Amino acid sequence: MIENKAIKFATKSAVLDEAHIGDIKGALGTIKHGDIAKRDGWRAKLVTFLAILGPGLIVMVGDNDAGAFGTYTQAAQNYGTTLLWTLMLLIPVLYVNQEMVLRLGSVTGVGHARLILERFGKFWGAFSVIDLFLLNALTIVTEFIGISLALDYLGLPKTLGVVISAILIMAAASTGNFRKFERFSLILVFGSLLLVPVVIMVHSPVGQIAHDFIVPQLPKDSKLSEVMLLIIAIVGTTVAPWQLFFQQSYVIDKRIPARFISYERIDLWLGIVLVMIGAVAMMAFTAATFAGHPEFGQFTDAGGVSVGLEKYVGKLPAVLFAIALIDASIIGASAVSLSTAYAIGDVFSLHHSLHRKPKDAKAFYFVYCGLIAIAAALVLTPGTPLGLLTNAVQTLAGVLLPSATVFLLLLCNDKAVLGPWVNSQKLNLFTGAIVAVLVILSIILTASVLWPDIGETTIISILAGGCLLAASIAVVGWLLRRHQSEQAKPLDKSLRDSWRMPPLNELPPGRFTTSSRIWMIVLRLYLIVAGGLVMLRIVQLATGTQG
Predict the structure, then answer these.
(1) Which of 22, 16, 30, 26 is nearest to 3 (CA)?
(2) Please, are residues 330 and 169 in contact by the beta-carbon 8 Å criterion?
(3) Residue 163 to residue 218: CA distance in whole angstroms
């Protein structure tokens, strides 16, 4: 009976790889395919949750990677804990963005890149894969930079350590056993908690941390342009495009259907709690370590933080920090590489599943392992501009993030794709506000890269003008949506648990409102101009020519 249901499901599903259909085989439990039994009692719910647990934890903790270590500790060493409040504001942004992609993954069974290709055309489909590939490749390089910095501090041979790390990352995903990979990843997830004892050893002031986490403020006697760039870097490292692609595809590969979305949301919240614990811990103990010492305001890199911890606190917290950096870099490199391999497999309808062995999904594993190998080789190559690559990642992520969020918002309002799972009006308004803020920050970031001496007056003008324009657009959008919703046929939400997106070839053509078309044109122009100028500036810096 179950086999017949599986066959019927496979023939009517939009799933592109049949390996994505079957039992949920999580790190901590199994749920049989076709299991629609009601979960009564806390024990049944706990067993189900443990089987689902994973995607949210991995994507969130993977976000506290080498780039995050550098950004958070820089903010703390230069400005203390005054920018902690930025993390608090990012909590709802993280949840809303990632909740939308886990919903897309469970309901559609198709990855983010392929949905963009099908609903918005070849240009945007190709663009989403190409920009993801380039940005992720650079991001993976920063992960190995983090590993090399930690190895240098620990006094271990860098070449051997980087090679072993690369082999470990490739081997963990190449077993053809999804459960083994997830168990490996969850070990790394809980390894991130090594940062907690460092906070305790440093004796960070709890009252000050709580105050600065809740109360927005700017560092006194600081240059606004530099502070804004650091705030943008915190946003860019906390909310990254690869997260959207990774979690949607990972949910699909884990075979989680829509009826378990409530469990996925709890998993996501746990991940957000862990990522916030790690981020707050780094800013707290770094600020406390360097406060009142000559190194305060003189950040170099994450390796310098280890040196400072040993100098002012002790050897043990410094070693724990270095090990946590290696742990974070490994999980970050693994997740970012997977997001790229998943996207390429989706777009080209190739086998792309961790349930498959390398011989059954050659292209998928070639992309995954190839990115890891190239990144490791670049870090070990003398003369590679590692600092420039790190800056390029932050800059390009800031430019590309708004477009990723726009597509996410449009997909989550596409009734042919999500049916009764489409966004509510309140969620649309909130996400629209997020997009507006990201665009404004992206413009400031682009301007600051092109004109490093940008003044405070210009930054304030961009902020004020952007907020005014965003508010005007929000009012017009709300009126249009209200009119459309009054005319639209209400959706039957009781069908949610059983509703799945039909096969891609059965979907009606994507229909866009006038406002959506205008936004797509504006977005395309912005990406061409901003992305092009930023890449030009990066090339100029690399070649030593003047812009």
Answers:
(1) 22
(2) yes
(3) 42
In terms of Cβ atoms closer than 10 Å to its own Cβ (0-12, 13-18, 19+), residue 383 is: exposed
Q: What is the pLDDT of residue 487?
A: 45
Specify the DSSP class assigned to residue 124: H
8-state DSSP, 29: E
- The residues, any chain, with a CB within 8 Å of residue 190's CB and separated by 6 or more, are none
Rounded Cα gap, residues 447 and 456, in angstroms:
12
Cβ atoms of 72 and 282 within 8 Å: the answer is: yes
DSSP annotation of 20 reads G
Region of residue 179 (phi > 0: left; psi between -120 and 50: alpha; otherwise: beta): alpha
Q: How far apart are CA 294 and CA 307, in angstroms?
A: 13
Rounded to the nearest 5°, which phi and psi values hold at 301? -165, 180
CA dihedral 530, 532, 533, 538 (to 10 degrees): 120
Pairing of strands 24-26, 29-31: antiparallel
In angstroms, the CA 302 to CA 149 distance is 7
The residues pairing with 31 across neighbouring beta strands, listed in sequence order, are 24
377 within 8 A of 384, measured Cβ to Cβ: no
Residues in the chain with pLDDT < 50?
1-11, 486-488, 547
Contact 332, 66 (CB under 8 A): yes
Per-residue pLDDT, 120 = 84
Q: Which two tokens stand for residue 345?
A: 């497999």
Please say whether the beta carbons of 344 and 368 come within 8 A: no
Phi/psi of residue 177, nearest 5 degrees = -125, 105
Tell me how far CA of residue 541 lies from CA of 65, 124, 385, 482, in angstroms: 25, 29, 10, 49
Distance CA 25, CA 21 (A): 11
Residues with Cβ within 8 Å of residue 259, at least 6 apart in sequence: 36, 497, 498
Token pair recorded at residue 82: 């005054």
| Closest to 291 in 3D by CA, of 309, 315, 316, 278 | 309
Query: Is 316:201 a contact under the CB 8 Å cutoff?
Result: yes
In whole angstroms, give the CA distance from residue 468 to residue 471. Answer: 5
What does the alpha-carbon distance between residue 414 and residue 476 come to, in Å, rounded to a whole number?
20
CA 166, distance to chain mean position in Å, is 21
Query: How far apart (Å, rounded) are the C-alpha atoms in residues 184 and 75?
Result: 31
Beta bridge partners of 26: 29
Amino acid (1-letter code) at residue 358: P
